[in-house]
Structure of histidine kinase:
Amino acid sequence: MAVRLPRPRRFDVYIALGSLLGGLLLWALGLATRPATEAYVLLPGRWPVLLPLFVMAGCELLRRSSPRTALLVGTAAIVLDVFTQGNLVTILMYTDLMYAAVLYGPPASAHRIPRITGLLAVAGTVVPFAVWREPEALLIGVVTGIVAFGPAATGLIVRNHRDAAVAARLRAEQTALLAEMDRTQAVTAERARMARELHDMVANHLSAIAIHSTAALSLEDPKTSQEALVVIRENSVAGLAEMRRLIGILRDDSGDTEPVAAPTLDGLGALVGNARTNGLDVTLEAGQGKVPAPVELAAYRIVQESLTNALKHAGPGRVAVSLGRRDGVLTVRITSPYGDRDGPGAPGSGAGLVGMRERAALLDGTFEAGPEDSPDGKIWAVRATLPVHDTVEGDTA
């Protein structure tokens, strides 16, 4: 089975061709690194120099695509070059192969090659000097360090810097991704919060307007129609005021930039009074005491939405609102008659129940809503439990 060599990079081809042409130029000019009279020049003459030169140029083609193979073959070529008169370009190409093997090779080779070449440089310095006792013997280790250890160490330094840059870029990308995820989650949470606020503030008034306008259109009694129109006007004015305050939160240039005070449980009396004006028979029993602001806001909105649902859907009868605090938990319970209405109703989308459940979940509380049996007949019961211990105050709307 034939072994298919990896395709060389274009830049590596340029290096190989340039180096080969440079080596051939030095060879044509007769410039060698050693005279033919040296004792260890076993292959004197001009022609033997070309074999290591061409092999080294071929290795340059593989400097990045297969760096370990290129270094092994190049090492054999540089050893062969030692026994010829030598060519300076052959040595320079070998230093590049050493550098490329560390920079582009596997991580294990990148750390192993500098250690091996460093030991060879030390051995090439100590052993010849110990054997020959000549100062010139130290040059063997110096040359080994320049040709092998120097390029290997340089390649390791460049590789470490490159890996650090890649790791920094990945961390930056991950940080940007996390920031985008946080931004998306924040936008989603803010949209959900604004949807709950808009629904809770305006739905009550619009439901009253829809019910009373239907009654005014269906009845021919002038007095009843007049009373319905009064209720419609009151709710439309109140709803418009709520909308303006909400817009003032969203737009700094709306002319209403003052912060809007969050509703508190002290306002339950006014809320119940407004529900009675709209035609509900409501009783209120509140004994919760002082609770944290987030719990207070959630409880108020749950009562407000429950009264809105009772106005739209409840049958004739009494609506009971009760709040009590016990064992670190605020319990909110609203009951209303469950059955067909005698008068006009208003359509619902179910967003109110979703909003109440979300408000309770944000405070690690519970929420339940559904029909129940009671001594007075079938009722619709809403029950929420909101922990009041260890609550961090803030906006949980």
Observations:
- The chain has two domains: 10-173, 264-397.
- Strands lie at 281-287, 318-326, 329-337, 366-374, 377-387.
